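Researcher: Sequence of 4-hydroxybenzoyl-CoA thioesterase family active site follows. Predict its structure.
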Amino acid sequence: MLANTRTLQVEFGHCDPSGIVFNPHYFVWFDFSVHALLGRAGLTLKSMIDEFGIDGIPLVDNQARFKAPSRWGDDIVIESRIAAVHRSAFEIRHLVRNGDTIAVECSETRVWTAFDPEQGRIRAKPLPPRIVALLSGAAPGA
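Model: Prediction complete. Tokens:
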């Protein structure tokens, strides 16, 4: 399955008054990490919108477990990988490491969506075979 790793340094503005990362920042980092993960396969949200006519890949489920704090100045590593690919959705797992410690575990589900004029709203659509292959790591560029 497709995977990506990125490193970032915790900055003062990421922290709450007690000096640890304010939890919502992790979710911003996870969103950026999803796009970096897709970039590993040569995909951008814009390219998917242009090529497949989708409206996006909205987040529909997100669960995080905060196991250890990260503090100002810490270098953390975010490991992101595709955990499962379904008919119209895919699951991503994020692991945040602070040194040898797992600080946060997160799972999220994103859905492949497009506007349905008959329904007058955005609806889940089947993932195209090429996207399935890229997310699964079975295609060149994955």
